[in-house]
Amino acid sequence: MRVAMIWTPPVDKVLLKHFGQYSSILLRAKGGYKAVYKVSDDKKTEALKLIQIPPTSLVEENESLQKELMGRIKRELETLKKCACPELVKLGSLALVELKIDGQLYLAYSEEFLDGKNLWDLWRNDPTTPSEQELKILFGVLLRAIRKLWQNGYVHRDIKPSNIIKLNSRQRPFVLLDMGIAYSINDTALTADARCIPATLRYIAPEMIRPNFRENIDYRSDLYTAALSVYEYGAKAHPFAIDAEDAIQTMSRALNDEPKPFVQVRPDISAEFCQLIDQMLKKTPALRPANLNSLIRQMEESV
User: Which of 3, 33, 113, 211 has the most CB atoms in a 10 Å sphere around its CB?
Assistant: First the structure.
């Protein structure tokens, strides 16, 4: 049995006892084992991430879970350090530290604070429909991030609208977050339970559902989830999911059903770009266009 975060440290304790270098600290989000704070000092504002490490005494599984969580955090920081680029979130000034708050073990580190909204919130709450140019810019950003990750031996595995921040910046229009379940082709697997699928089921690539996915995984799974994110953001609808339904049903549709062609939900967008998104959503990785340099050049030349 895995336990979710059951307690978030009060801001005053975090600030006064452990992070006195910050003059301001505000809880922004929490979920699972993680809490994220907006922290500031006289010179900068960053995002402080605090991850609960469950005690091994609670349940028998927690020793392996503790090892997995700590391994994933270290891999995330390693990935961001090796793959530094404008398309990926940058590490902050606070290096990874281990601390105890009221006897509970936590790991903490900081990233840059991105002053923008994620695409999940935007497509659900903003009545504006993204233009073809914006969608091409978004896809180009994701392709460059995928290329940088793959050049260093990583597959993101969790590209989705809630992990993409839109910024009011021509230099960095979108930024990809959260390498928490990134896969390294050069390191041993971190998942303690081999039956567990390390992905968000709503956005999982079909090949990731198969038992032997670790033998064949490569960047083409990220191409699928990048296109899926563009489709959902552009259409304001997921090609397989129905809100509030069981994620297993969504995953079953992703494995067995064909998505509605993108041009049918966005007839105002060029057939060429719609066809590219449709091709990226092919269930067999070999059928997806996979020349990253060519794809990136195509996006850059078309905007």
Answer: 33
Same domain, 167 and 279: yes
Q: Which domain holds residue 181?
A: 117-301
Alpha-carbon distance 92 to 109, whole Å? Answer: 8
H-helix or E-strand spanning residue 144:
helix 132-151
Report how many domains make up the chain: 2
Instruction: Return d(Cα 34, Cα 36) in angstroms, integer.
Output: 7
Q: What is the DSSP secondary structure assignment for residue 213, as one 8-state letter? A: H
Q: Centre a 10 Å sphere on the Cβ of residue 3 and count the other Cβ atoms it contains.
A: 14
Res. 59: pLDDT tops 60: no
Q: What is the CATH number of the domain that holds 168?
A: 1.10.510.10
pTM of the predicted model over 0.85:
yes
Q: Rounded to whole angstroms, how far apart are CA atoms 110 and 28?
A: 14
Whole-number Å distance between alpha carbons of 169 and 177: 17
The rounded radius of gyration (Å) of the Cα atoms in the chain is 20
Q: What is the pLDDT of residues 77-135, one digit of tens each?
A: 999 999 999 999 999 999 999 988 878 888 999 999 999 999 999 999 999 999 999 99
**Cβ count near 1 (within 10 Å):** 8
Per-residue tokens: 26 = 């505000």
The number of C-alpha atoms within 13 Å of 292 and in the hemisphere containing its C-beta is 19
3-state secondary structure of 20: coil
